[in-house]
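Recall the central idea of this unit: under ordinary conditions, the amino acid sequence of a chain determines the structure it adopts. In this exercise we apply that idea directly, starting from the sequence alone.
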Amino acid sequence: METTSCAVGIAFRAALLLAGATQTAELAVLDGIDASNNISHSSLLIETVRSTIRRRTDSPAVFDGINLLPPELRRLLGLNPTFRDCFVLRILVQLPPEVCAELLKISITECEAALCGALNQFPLLPPLLKAADDAEG
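Accordingly, the structure predicted from this sequence is:
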């Protein structure tokens, strides 16, 4: 059984990968906690993802959380949002296709096509810089 801190950590990392912004991820986790009837991993994660997607549309795309990500995952922020969403939810978070499609408000076919697109584009993306660290150095 996962601990509450583990569930919160997983929800935050998923929100950070979806939004790229630390404040959006933090607020989404708080929304997820508020919306969850219990603090189980799955309910917290689902509610956090819902909030992240909702909040992301209301805020500009500022990737201030890039330095919190390992270099291998930074490149995800170079994918278009639908491709990134499907990759994060299906591959990294391991949600079933029907849950992923419902959260993203797209069909399962569109979700699977976006995932295929992400898997095809991901290896071709250039590495993203470490943002602030590289700009200063």
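The CA atoms of residues 24 and 123 lie 27 Å apart.
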